[in-house]
Amino acid sequence: MAGARLLAAVLVLGLCAMAGAGKPSPCQCSRMNPDSRKNCGFPGITSEQCFAAGCCFDTTVPGVPWCFTPLPMEDKEECVMEVSARVNCGYPGISSEVCASRKCCFSDTIPEVPWCFFPKPVQDCHY
Questions:
Q1: Which of 65, 102, 107, 119 has the fewest CB atoms lying closer than 10 Å?
Q2: CB 89 within 8 A of CB 117
Q3: Which PROSITE patterns match (predicted)?
Q4: Distance between CA 106 and CA 15 in Å, rounded?
Q5: Can you tell me the distance from the alpha carbon of 35 to that of 4, in angstroms, rounded to the nearest whole number?
């Protein structure tokens, strides 16, 4: 049984690597609330295996997955954040152009949250 699990994990990681999965950006990982982490690995996974699968790896928080799905990538690194961290920079119905003119981030993929929001400095991102 353990051998079958290991084989399945190796196959999944291999397929992810062939699909072009790569190490996520620091902001995609460090801005994720530990309580929001979704498991992306298996018991005993190494950081190298986790990153090769396109996932984040952080062992500093006990009781949550150490290998986890990253936040979605945005056009600009400073715009990568959890939806709950968005601070409104616009108004309902604002266009991406007007939002950009305010030097803010724009993402209209999730309803009922700010679509135009202030960026966060990239310096606070780390692995």
A1: 102
A2: yes
A3: P_TREFOIL_1, P_TREFOIL_2
A4: 32
A5: 30
Token readout for 124 is 């606070």
pLDDT tens string 57-111: 999 999 999 999 999 988 899 999 999 999 999 999 999 999 999 999 999 999 9
User: Could you tell me the two tokens for 64?
Assistant: 């949550």
Q: What type of residue is 50? A: C
Sign of CA dihedral 21, 27, 32, 34: positive
- Tokens of residue 125, six digits: 């991102």
- pLDDT tens per residue, range 31-55: 999 999 999 999 999 999 999 999 9
The tokens describing 86, both together, are 């968005």
Pairwise CA distance, residues 73 & 68, whole Å: 15
